[in-house]
Design a protein that fits this description.
The chain is α/β, with parallel strands linked by helices. It is built from eleven helices and nine strands. Strand 4, helix 5 and strand 5 form a beta-alpha-beta unit. Helix 3 runs antiparallel to helix 8, helix 7 runs parallel beside helix 11 and helix 8 packs parallel to helix 11.
Amino acid sequence: MGQPFVSAEIATQPDCWRRAAELAGRSAAATPRTGERVAVVGCGTSWFVAQCYAALREAAGQGETDAFAASEFPRQRSYDRVVAITRSGTTTEVLELLRALRGGPRTVALTGDGTSPVMELADEVVLLDFADERSVVQTRFATSTLALLRASLGESVERAAADAERALTEPLDGLVAAEQFTFLGRGWTCGLAQEAALKMREAAGAWTEAYPAMEYRHGPISVTGPNRVAWMFGEPPTGLPAEVAATGGHLRATSADPMADLVVAQRLAVAIAHRRGLDPDNPRHLTRSVVLDQV
């Protein structure tokens, strides 16, 4: 088996993030303005990116921001702007929602495909075609979108990109053979924890879970033990390292930008897939875009 597409796509992320940050400056008119009430929607990975951005925007004091799976958007609520994240621009639930919102709040689509139906349905489009992917499993499009959104909030993504360059060569010894992973986050990194767990399930069929770090203590910690990993995105809460150590499990927590630490989880998912004889580009039961039959 040759190198999967996803491995090459993972490796391009630092450069893609820098390009996304530049694009944020050119796309400022499309991204939410300070004080707007905003909803961010997506499906799968894009929903987790939406969760990250919603937490970051509120923490930055830029306005109330909610994140929803596109299928669960509460249409009775009032928003100034709805941001839809869709790599393919063809996901049924996203397109249906944008059609339903016509004449209502301003809609913005972040997409990787400039020929897709979303180009006509959203009021404004930010095109990240340089981050589009061949693999079914999303990596660089999702993180590049998040880099753009972080930059739109006034953050520099240069440290994240530099940390990601180091993450591309970090040894995975001791992680590949682990039998279970629990990913943890706080604030905006709760979305990253969900995304890391999804990558491991999609690409490698691995047993993974994800929780807010403080909620992990309320039951889920019972799954941790020898040869099992609790993986924290960002600084762990006080006392958590000792509690994980008491289970016999391994706590991973680094000082790297959490988005760069996600790159390590992506690489690990591919490595475990290879170890199990799986094709990480074509996960079981999945397609690149979910397009549902219209009833």
